[in-house]
Write a structure and sequence with these properties.
This protein has helices spanning 6-11, 13-21, and strands spanning 26-35, 39-46, 52-58, 63-68, 78-85, 98-105, 110-115, 120-127. The strands form 2 sheets. It has a 6-stranded antiparallel beta sheet, covered by helices on one side. The protein is built from 2 helices and 8 strands. It is mostly beta strands.
């Protein structure tokens, strides 16, 4: 299920890729941050691969959270496919502003998640192919 208007996904097929990639059968689930009614960051490991997925959302207030990636397998490199709010994103004035980037990370990396008001971040982590 995709919780938005179909035309928003049609306008940004690159952003819809994350929805297509996310599995539905999980081996592990961890909560990195949570405050009821305010924000949450959850990571989940796919049961059928070595991929991890992170989702972080906030209420109407923007915030910055630090996400240690210690859940990743030590000694292994991962590609982080990051879908995040653009710097000018805001649920009232610019709700569709998104940036999609990639970077190499490992278990010692700490990512800074900048969540726009009413926004969030989604990340897929998959091992770097040897």
């Amino acid at each position: 299920m995709a919780a938005d208007l179909p035309e928003h996904y049609e306008a940004r097929p690159d952003a819809f890729q994350f929805i297509k990639d996310v599995p539905v059968d999980w081996e592990d689930t961890r909560v990195l941050h949570a405050r009821i009614g305010d924000y949450v960051t959850i990571v989940r490991k796919d049961r059928h691969s070595d991929d991890w997925y992170l989702g972080s959302i906030t209420d109407e207030y923007g915030r910055t959270l630090r996400a240690p990636l210690s859940f990743l397998e030590p000694g292994r490199k991962y590609v982080a496919e990051i879908y995040r709010d653009a710097p000018d994103a805001d649920w009232r004035t610019n709700p569709l502003a998104i940036e999609i980037t990639r970077q190499i990370v490992d278990a010692s990396t700490v990512l800074t998640l900048r969540l726009a008001p009413g926004g969030g971040t989604a990340i897929r982590f998959h091992p770097v192919e040897e």
